[in-house]
Amino acid sequence: MDGNVSSLPTAAKSKAGRHRGLLAILLKHRYRYLLIAPGLLYVLLFRYGPMYGIVVAFQDYNGFKGITGSEWVGFKWFLTFFNGPDFWHLMRNTLMISLMKIGFGMAPDIVMAILLNEVRTRWFKRSVQTLTYMPHFLSWIIIYGMVLAFLSTSSGLVNHTLKDWGFDPVPFLTSNDWFRWILVLSDIWKDLGWGAIIYLAAISAIDPQLYEAAVMDGANKARQMWHITLPGIRNIFILMLTLRLGNVLDAGFTQIFAMYNPLVYDSVDIIDTWVYRAGIIENRVGLATAVGLFKSVVGLILVVIANRVAKKFDSQIW
């Protein structure tokens, strides 16, 4: 007992010392903390603050009674969604579109970055970068207008050309066989420049002496790419893959909502579009919130698993 009493002043001094050390760090880097304060405040207010509304997923929410007055129903809405007729259909479409975007969308970014890295004419390289990067800033409404101008059955440039050549028009935008590919290809085109810049920055960080040594050893461009460039951007590739796996249940709501129509619901109706109809149009707020929470939990689990798998097999990749 005496030993515990005698140790209290020492513990108190240690705690006070830690507080002074923390205060000293805050004062030393006060301008940096002031710079990140707006972003941190934004995250707290608009990311973590609204998480209080998650409780609606466990309530029979009534807008007049509010969150505190609505009846608790437990996991009713989760079971309603899981046992509903649309669950497997929505999961299939969501996973199919997301995996197609990941599988077909990551390689073009890497190829574009490698090609741009080999360009030695500065003005041409910057022009290509600008042209491929600009679509990233276009809204999906504008892109849909461009897709409509090219692929519309009645007035699209492609179908006009097919008619002139004696072929029947192809219903690109109303066919379940075509529409998924329209989504995937337009997504690749929109974000090609963005992804290429990220990989190009990673390539520029590779030690040039590695390439010089490879040239002295007689390695051609293909060998340099395989043994130096690709391993050099491995970590960035794993990071991008991990982030995209975390959003595998998103599938691109804004793109699909802007471009789809009832004729292609069978192939492109995803969880987010269903939630929009359930929560906004049909006013089933509890059900929509439950599905959104389900998506977030699955995304978190996938990110954690992908991150652990990447770390475990990092030394075996490439």
Q: Strand order within the widest sheet? A: 1-2
Q: Give me the secondary-structure category.
A: mainly alpha
Beta-strand content = under 5%
Termini gap: 61 Å
**Tally of separate domains:** 2
The CATH topology of the largest domain is given as MetI-like fold
Helix fraction, binned, reads over 70%
> What's the order of the H and E elements?
HHEHEHHHHHHHHHHHHH
Question: Cα-atom Rg, whole angstroms?
Answer: 27 Å
| Total beta strands | 2
Please tell me the overall pLDDT: 85
**Total helical segments:** 16
Low-confidence stretches: 1-6
Q: What sort of overall outline do the alpha carbons produce when their principal axes are compared?
A: flat
How many strands, what sense, and barrel or not for the largest sheet?
2 strands, antiparallel
* CATH architecture heading of the largest domain: Orthogonal Bundle
Description:
The chain has 318 residues and is an all-alpha fold. The protein folds into 2 domains: 2-72, no CATH class; 76-316, MetI-like fold (Orthogonal Bundle). The chain contains 16 helices and 2 strands. It has helices at 2-28, 30-48, 66-69, 76-82, 87-118, 122-133, 140-151, 157-164, 176-204, 208-216, 221-232, 234-246, 253-259, 265-268, 271-281, 285-312, and strands at residues 59-60, 71-72. A two-stranded antiparallel sheet has the order 1-2. The protein is flat and about 75 Å long.
What is the topology?
Blueprint (H helix, E strand, L loop, with lengths): L1 H27 L1 H19 L10 E2 L5 H4 L1 E2 L3 H7 L4 H32 L3 H12 L6 H12 L5 H8 L11 H29 L3 H9 L4 H12 L1 H13 L6 H7 L5 H4 L2 H11 L3 H28 L6
Antiparallel strand pairs: 1-2
